[in-house]
């Protein structure tokens, strides 16, 4: 049941917002969120306002509608707002309508996230799907400028692959984000870098060198790695999730607009669904053996 009044406010709004930045990486830690915010501020200062406005809109919407206080404090209603705020700021020219548009998109992302959490169950977890849906709607009316040319540098490409999670193409951004992840979970940070490396390698093997150096094949692999490595899964499960995300990316690249993080989301859904049906099959076989 929701209320239109601002009841049960978050005990610490700053922490909730910073947790929202870290939840983009499926982690909860204000220091990690601060590193992500610094990455945006230092490498793309023109996008930081949109990121903060989107996060704040998501948090205020969740609070106004009475969503669970602990979930709000954890940043679960901010992270999609962070991403859509960055995207809108990046692809649309500045105008007086831009801030209200980001506020509306950030608030809507919070509502979609809540409904998805209620109805998606354990198989269709929301992840960044609200951002993907709102991002596609944005890209249909926007004309994003093409990515510039970058020199071949494997280390920079690794960092860019992580930075592109936040739509950032500067190596410093990726490095700051990796530091933030390392603060929370060094194992997950290692896997995120591995996911970025595998994605870059796949791009090179398929003659997409610029995509590799820009990190455009790294971020979905990094996110898939984060989704499963942080759950303590066996390494082969994490590698399979990365592989699925990278297999789906060329298919989504056939769309007239960017796939954004859809390959990561779809790969996770396939992994969860596959595991669910495998467990059902095992239980059925065990039941048959005992009957």
UniProtKB/TrEMBL annotation:
Domain of life: Bacteria
Chief subcellular location: membrane
Site-annotated residues for Important for channel permeability: 261
Regions crossing the membrane: 31-62, 123-142, 162-183, 211-228, 235-252, 258-278
Topology with respect to the bilayer: Multi-pass membrane protein
GO cellular component entries: plasma membrane
Compartments, record wording: Cell membrane
Keyword annotations of the record: Cell membrane, Membrane, Transmembrane, Transmembrane helix
A molecular function GO annotation: urea transmembrane transporter activity
Pfam families to which the protein is assigned, alphabetical: UT
Gene3D superfamilies per record: Ammonium transporter AmtB like domains
Family affiliation: Belongs to the urea transporter family.
Annotated protein name in UniProt: Urea transporter
Originating species: Pseudomonas putida (strain ATCC 47054 / DSM 6125 / CFBP 8728 / NCIMB 11950 / KT2440)
């Amino acid at each position: 049941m929701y209320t239109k009044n601002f009841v049960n406010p978050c005990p610490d709004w700053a922490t909730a917002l910073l947790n929202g930045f870290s939840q983009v990486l499926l982690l909860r830690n204000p220091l990690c969120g601060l590193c992500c915010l610094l990455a945006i501020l230092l490498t793309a200062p023109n996008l930081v306002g949109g990121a903060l406005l989107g996060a704040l809109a998501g948090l205020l919407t969740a609070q106004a509608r009475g969503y669970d206080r602990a979930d709000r404090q954890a940043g679960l209603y901010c992270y999609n707002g962070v991403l859509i705020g960055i995207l809108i700021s990046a692809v649309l020219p500045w105008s007086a309508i831009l801030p209200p548009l980001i506020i509306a998109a950030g608030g809507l992302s919070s509502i979609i996230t809540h409904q998805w959490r209620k109805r998606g169950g354990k198989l269709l977890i929301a992840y960044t799907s609200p951002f993907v849906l709102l991002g596609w709607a944005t890209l249909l009316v926007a004309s994003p400028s093409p990515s510039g040319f970058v020199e071949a540098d494997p280390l920079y490409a690794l960092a860019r692959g992580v930075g592109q999670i936040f739509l950032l193409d500067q190596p410093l951004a990726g490095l700051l984000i990796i530091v933030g992840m390392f603060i929370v979970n060094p194992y997950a940070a290692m896997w995120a870098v591995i996911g970025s490396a595998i994605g870059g390698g796949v791009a090179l093997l398929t003659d997409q060198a610029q995509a590799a150096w820009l990190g455009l094949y790294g971020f979905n692999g990094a996110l898939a790695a984060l989704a499963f490595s942080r759950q303590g899964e066996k390494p082969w499960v994490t590698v399979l999730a990365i592989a699925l995300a990278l297999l789906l990316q060329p298919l989504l690249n056939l769309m007239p607009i960017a796939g954004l993080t859809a390959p990561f989301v779809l790969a996770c859904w396939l992994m969860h669904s596959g595991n669910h049906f495998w467990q059902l099959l095992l239980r059925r076989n065990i039941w048959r053996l005992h009957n």
